[in-house]
Amino acid sequence: MSIEKNNFGDTGEYISKLGIGLSEIGKISVDESQNIDNLLNSAIDLGINFFDTSACYGNSEDFLGRAISNRRDEFFLATKCGHFIDSNNTGLISDNDQDQAWAIKTLVESVDRSLKRMKTDYIDLIQLHSCDLEILKQGDVIETIEKMKKSGKVRFIGYSGDNEAAQWASLDGRFDSIQTSFNILDQGAKNMVFPGVEKTNKGLIAKRPIANGAWGVENSPSDYANEYHRRFKLIQSKGMKIETELNSIELSLAFALSHKTINVHIVGTTNLSHLKSNIQQLQQNKLLEEKILTHLYELFDKSNDGWVSQT
Fold first, then answer.
1. What is the domain range of residue 228?
2. Among candidates 215, 295, 210, 290, which has minimal Cα distance to 254?
């Protein structure tokens, strides 16, 4: 099955416009994970070639290694590092995280662990995961990752985060890509991150493109979505005038897909039918008319009471 693909910044890589995020998969227990192999293999069969995970997404890296390491040349593999992972509880951030996060030893051990868990000898994209601006400016963490790149453990270096840190990283030539939140309820990156990415021709990965399912629903779908749902209710109160046949999820995804600066949109799911629906929408090129986009920009700006991007 064919999925539209984009150049990934200046990397020379050609990646699917829709990727799969593996944070939700990492929350599933090993005993309940029988369907994960089918989901990940089906994603490749359906044309997705971008997989995004992290050392701190529970069992995610293990499941990926189990399911598709034998198809390693068919996909672009992105993971993240930086948080201190409890060696006795693989994939979970330790209570000692604040003491050991971003230490050189933590970064090196994290990448080595990821390589082992995912049964591969290289990572296409390693991303510094939500470290703050002060740590980025110190430079040690970036230099450590650059050494891994020279050794062949990783091919490209990215930053995954939001707000001022993502803005700063978007202009730093040592990064090949930026991953940041962008959706109908989280539009800050359009002004903070997009300009730097466009200026330096980095790859841009949008996380949370469907706004955690918070748009257009009466109640928040999860605790994680509470802030987005609060924003939706406030925007709704400002008087929306949107005429579309798209349902709430389709509208959210169409909003994100309508921004050409973004190379890949990662949607996390454990449901194959949901994944197929998203792919179908992409193939049918369901985007938003300029007047609807403009209206959504205006509603966001009118409602914004100091919102920051959600990390």
1. 5-303
2. 210
62: domain CATH number? 3.20.20.100
Number of domains forming the structure of the chain: 1
* DSSP 3-state percent helix, strand, coil across the chain (nearest 5): 45, 15, 40
Is 118 inside a domain boundary? yes
**Any domain includes 199:** yes
Q: SS3 of 85, please?
A: strand
| Cα 125 from chain centroid (whole Å) | 12
pLDDT tens by residue, 4-50: 999 999 999 999 999 999 998 888 887 777 789 999 999 999 999 99
Q: What is the pTM of this model?
A: 0.94
Q: Report the C-alpha gap between 279 and 182 in whole angstroms.
A: 19
pLDDT single digits (tens) 154-170: 999 999 999 999 999 99
Partners of 273 in the beta sheet?
Answer: none
CA dist 199 → 9, 172, 196, 270 (Å): 11, 11, 5, 36
* Assigned domain for 284 exists: yes
